[in-house]
Amino acid sequence: MKECSWPSSDLMKLYHQNEWCRISKDDRYIFEMLSLEGAQAGLSWETVIQKRAAYQEAFHGFDIEKCATLTDEEIESIKENYKVIKHIGKLKSVRNNALIVKQIQDEYGSFSNFIWAYVEDEPIINEWKSENEMPAETDLSIKVSKDFKKLGLKFVGPKIIYSFLQSIGIIDDHIITCPYHTRNR
């Protein structure tokens, strides 16, 4: 079977094989992916994935409660002392988004319940023959992006959200011949 060709490094291959387009309903993981996808804005996923361990350490494993209480000083310390992307707006968005995710959890029971409701708890399983067929955004990612922005979430444009939806398994975009495609597992 022919795998997706985009993973170029060992880290990317591991992510592709074990996480990408795999269903997750774990709020902490979903929040991590939202944060990392936001960090990617304007950069490559390769850059972010190489810094993932530093992000996990700096942001307490993406514990939503802890991220929501980070001070400006702590965020500045993360910028100075960790091998993360140094964009202060992206770093502050983790705290901002954690605060909003907490509100979503209070209202919907979990962040997972909220985000999976967009697809009525059923993943979108695409059947691309080629990676060239894959869109960068869709009507769904545009809608989720608009809704997220209305809630006050940061770094949630339609392309970022499309990648986010892939990362938590709402969308399976493995090419149909990839052994990691839902239909082949």
UniProtKB/TrEMBL annotation:
Residues annotated as binding Zn(2+): 4, 16, 174, 178
EC number: 3.2.2.20
Enzyme class (EC, first level): hydrolase
Pfam families given in the database record: Adenine_glyco
Record-linked InterPro entries: Adenine_glyco (IPR005019), DNA-3mA_glycosylase (IPR052891), DNA_glycosylase (IPR011257)
GO molecular-function term, one example from the UniProt record: metal ion binding
Annotated GO biological process: base-excision repair
Record's protein name: Putative DNA-3-methyladenine glycosidase
Keywords, ordered alphabetically: Glycosidase, Hydrolase, Metal-binding, Zinc
Organism superkingdom: Bacteria
